[in-house]
Automatic annotation (TrEMBL):
Pfam families: QcrA_N, Rieske. It is found in: Cell membrane. Residues 1-38 are annotated as: Disordered. Its cofactor is [2Fe-2S] cluster. Residues 248-344 form the Rieske domain. The chain crosses the membrane at residues 47-66, 86-106, 150-170. GO terms for molecular function: 2 iron, 2 sulfur cluster binding; metal ion binding; monooxygenase activity; oxidoreductase activity, acting on paired donors, with incorporation or reduction of molecular oxygen. Belongs to the Rieske iron-sulfur protein family. It comes from Nocardioides faecalis. This is Cytochrome bc1 complex Rieske iron-sulfur subunit.
């Protein structure tokens, strides 16, 4: 084999011709909008039209949200509810029209120049960085966003309106709580008929003599089983409302020696000495860490352990946290007995049950 020739598989010789020349780029083809001002204007109107259609679709979403109700009797194709279909189509079209408008803007009106760049190290040189920033600036200039205020403003308007569906959809996360986080159904007992404490699941009232030292009982308000007794509408304790009330009002009763109880103070600075009955104390069953139900009792220490993250509360000392991630004591329910000797709630919990929230205050016990 020589430097100038090589042999092909059939025994012939091929001349070495050297590297292939760079064919370069074909001649640039100008777009109709680059050479015809009328077509440029028409393309601009098309882009603005898509952005306006997006804005109208967003408005249609809002109208559908407030006028069509879930569960309407009339349906559309495929059995889909009118509300779901209208919301899905209008929001989908709002996003689609913005995308189509931006694509049309890029294809027909933005700068149309072929660019090549040789490979370079991972970190660009300072010169390349400056060039990139300049190219970005040039790109913004070539996009025409500064000299096409109609496109710019219609795009900003369409994108801005898309924030409204996000705002109104937040309303579907649930009803506004108002002051519901601060109160439970325990506080709805009548002044002359305080609410009885009943065993969870079997709804039987509890006498202090029913509990022995060390006994722990899961309890609920009698109103969940006998709402009329406390002038409560039965519809208020059915279905989802029943589960909400149970989750907030779930209670733990524990009986210990009365001398073991360290009576703290309530939020008004008054002693809790009269909150217990014959050594029986009542606390929320809901952990103040993340809301797990707790009932693991250590009889000799009066400690209550949450099985989720091992927060431990001292029921003999105002439910204070002795271990774990919980940041607040368990809310305590003041107890009394009614005319028949059954345990009742003297009032509601002295503070909100469950995990902390922004507006919740804390006081030392």
């Amino acid at each position: 084999m020589s430097d100038a020739h090589t042999t092909d598989p059939h025994g012939g010789e091929l001349a070495v011709t050297g590297p292939i020349a760079d064919p370069g780029l074909p001649e640039h083809q100008w777009r109709p909008t680059d050479v015809d001002p009328a077509k440029e204007k028409r393309a601009e109107r098309q882009v603005v039209g898509f952005f306006l259609l997006s804005a109208l679709s967003t408005v249609a979403f809002l109208v559908a949200y407030f006028t069509l109700k879930i569960g309407d009797n009339w349906h559309v194709i495929g059995g889909f509810g009118a509300s779901n279909m209208a919301l899905g189509l209008s929001l989908g079209l709002a996003l689609l029209f913005i995308g189509v408008g931006i694509i049309q803007w890029a294809r027909k009106l933005m700068g149309d120049h072929e660019m090549t760049e040789m490979r370079h190290p991972a970190r660009s040189s300072d010169e390349d960085r400056e060039t990139t920033l300049q190219a970005l600036s040039d790109g913004l200039e070539e996009s025409g966003i500064a000299r096409r205020p109609l496109i710019r403003n219609s795009l900003l308007g369409a994108v801005g309106l898309l924030g409204l569906p996000a705002v109104v959809l937040l309303r579907d996360l649930g009803p506004l709580p108002g002051d519901a986080l601060y109160h439970t159904i325990w506080g709805r007992g009548l002044p002359n008929r305080p609410m009885r404490i009943v065993r969870d699941g079997i709804w039987t009232p509890i006498l202090p003599s029913d509990l022995e030292i060390g006994d722990l009982v899961n309890a609920q308000p009698d109103a969940l089983h006998n709402p009329e007794r406390y002038d409560i509408d039965p519809a208020d304790v059915e279905g989802i409302e029943l589960q909400v009330h149970k989750s907030k009002a779930s209670l733990i009763l524990l009986r210990m020696q009365p001398e073991d109880i360290k009576h703290g103070k309530d939020k008004d600075g008054q002693s809790r000495e009269n909150w217990a009955v014959d050594g029986i104390v009542a606390y929320s069953k809901i952990c103040t860490h993340v809301g797990c139900p707790i009932s693991l009792n250590e009889r000799t220490t009066h400690h209550l352990l949450c099985p989720c993250h091992q927060s431990t509360f001292d029921l003999a000392d105002s439910g204070k946290v002795v271990f774990g991630p919980a940041g607040r004591p368990l809310p305590q329910l003041p107890l009394a007995v009614d005319d028949e000797g059954y345990l009742v709630a003297a009032s509601d919990f002295d503070e909100p049950v469950g995990p902390s929230f922004w507006e919740r205050d804390y006081y030392e016990r």
